[in-house]
Amino acid sequence: MRWKQFFTPVQSMNPDEARAYLSDKTLQEVTILDVRQAGEYEEGHIPGAKLIPMAVLTDSLHEIDRSKPVLVYCAIGGRSRIAAQTLAGKGFDQVINLSGGFKAWTGQRAFGPEEEGVDLFTELDSPEQILATAYSLEDGLRDFYLRMLERAYDEKIKSVFRLLADIEIKHKDRLFEEYTRLTGKDDRGAFECSFVTPLMEGGMTTQEYLERFKPDMDSPVDVVSMAMSIEAQALDLYMRSAEWVSNEENRAILEQIAGEEKSHLARLGQMLDEMHAAGKS
Fold it and tell me: Quick one: pLDDT at residue 245?
């Protein structure tokens, strides 16, 4: 039986197939399993990925939900293929190996330790507090875009920052609508007084993002690419936090916000495509 794992066939997906597969799924529907080392994960990972290094996988099977599909990846595909076969040999029925690994991944990327930022949400008592925290993160990102607008000289760059700031207003409106639906309260001023963090969306400060991405502030494409990276970091934070919280209502709200972050990323992706198309014409 111990050799079964090496001969058990598993499904493989290339990065484009995997990205499409994950596009409409929450972490309650699929486990994204990273079997690299912690340092590799911190440098970059698929948003929402669970880290279990290959060396400790067989001792950590109890941490993986057998009832849902598991998408496994590593750096280039070698470790994940063995890990996927191991899982299949241990009775996991739905295992998918990401061919080419993270090096070939064509979707958005997040970075940082698995537990980073989740304390923003894990100790909160209610969905209302989670919405208030998410609202304050969105507000921080809008403030960042407005400050970048003041620093920009080129009118094209200014227009991009104005658009990004306006998008954040829509994000905030959506969160407040959800707060009103849950509580029946529509006093936005009182709601905004419940802000709990000066951080931006994704759980980092302005300076940390600028140092991390180093965007060319004269390039609209660079600016939108930076915005997509920030949204990907936010998606990762909400997805990971949803796995860490114990309250089911809080988990549902975090998953809902994560789903909206996916739509935000899609909109920014469209903007980027339009910019590239305009540049070629």
Answer: 87
Q: Is 193 a known active-site residue?
A: no
Q: How far is CA 177 from CA 192, 238, 245, 248, in A?
A: 13, 19, 23, 20
Cα-flanking dihedrals φ and ψ of residue 11, to 5°? -75, 145
Q: Spell 248-265 as b/e; 16+ CB within 10 A means b.
A: eebbbbbbbbbebbbebb
Gap between the Cα atoms of 152 and 139, Å rounded = 20
| Token pair for 40 | 């590799």
The 10 Å Cβ neighbour count of residue 56 is 10
For residue 185, the tally of other CB atoms under 10 A from its CB is: 12
Catalytic residue among 18, 33, 51, 74: 74
pLDDT under 70 in the chain at which residues? 1-9, 196-198, 280-281
Q: First and final CA of the chain: distance in angstroms? A: 60
Distance, CA of 165 to CA of 3 (rounded, Å)? 56
The identity of residue 224, as a single letter, is V
Cα separation, 281 vs 275, in Å, equals 10
For 99-184, strand residue ranges (E) read none
Residue 159 CA to residue 267 CA, distance in Å, equals: 16
pTM greater than the 0.90 cutoff: no
How many residues does this entry show for the chain? 281
Please write the tens of the pLDDT for every residue from 156-208.
Answer: 899 999 999 999 999 999 999 999 999 999 999 888 887 766 677 777 777 77
